[in-house]
Design brief:
The protein is mostly helical and 185 residues long. The chain has helices at residues 16-24, 28-40, 44-48, 88-97, 109-124, 134-147, 153-160, 166-171, and strands at 55-58, 63-66, 68-69, 75-77, 80-82. A hairpin with a 5-residue loop joins β3 and β4 (75-77). The radius of gyration is 16 Å and the shape is globular.
Length: 185
């Protein structure tokens, strides 16, 4: 785990321009992971469990569907994104297409967190309020769904893999002003 803690009430919106340095100044696999979590809102653990068989690229409809298998069987998250989404054509799709069968990512959660922490220190020094975490990336997507797309809480729950009714209480403030900033991309 990173050696810093950011309370939940201080989550911030991460914009594409903020993650570009993290994507382009790290190894390709870390860049793909950062972009994928930012685009889909998946948890880092779910993203790291992805296998080649979970990725469905539909050339006719020009979209990518990622199916996440729940640990107890079945599936619970089915996020998709378009070829037109930022980072997809030149970063994510080439990575997916070069994969053999098996895992999409080779490193573990702790290793990716260490890489992200080093990048944070490189770009922001000791100013931890400017650090980006994988959870920030996830919450940026959730906020984007709630604010910009006006998605219903049930839709957001399905997208993010949440199952409890407590999530509806959690997402309601994100539709208003609890998060400072706005995700326009």
């Amino acid at each position: 785990m990173p050696n810093y803690y950011i309370p939940k009430e201080h989550f911030k919106i991460v914009k594409s321009k903020e993650i570009e340095p993290y994507i382009y100044n790290s190894d390709k696999e870390t860049g793909v992971l950062v972009a994928l979590i930012w685009l889909t809102g998946l948890r880092i653990g779910d993203t790291l469990r992805l296998e080649k068989s979970n990725i469905h690229i539909n050339e006719n409809l020009r979209d990518v569907v990622v199916t996440i298998k729940a640990s107890k069987g079945g599936t619970y998250a089915n996020p998709s994104f378009s070829f037109d989404d930022r980072f997809v054509p030149n970063l994510i799709l080439p990575h997916f297409r070069l994969l053999d069968e098996g895992k999409v990512f080779t490193k573990g959660k702790r290793r990716f967190q260490q890489i992200l922490l080093k990048l944070n220190k490189k770009f922001h020094g000791n100013e931890t309020s400017r650090y980006i975490t994988f959870h920030y990336l996830r919450h940026s997507r959730i906020t984007h769904l709630a604010r910009n797309l006006h998605a219903f809480p049930e839709e957001i729950k399905a997208w993010t893999g949440h199952r409890t009714s407590q999530f509806e209480e959690y997402i309601a403030p994100r539709k208003v002003e609890r998060f400072k900033g706005r995700l326009d991309e």
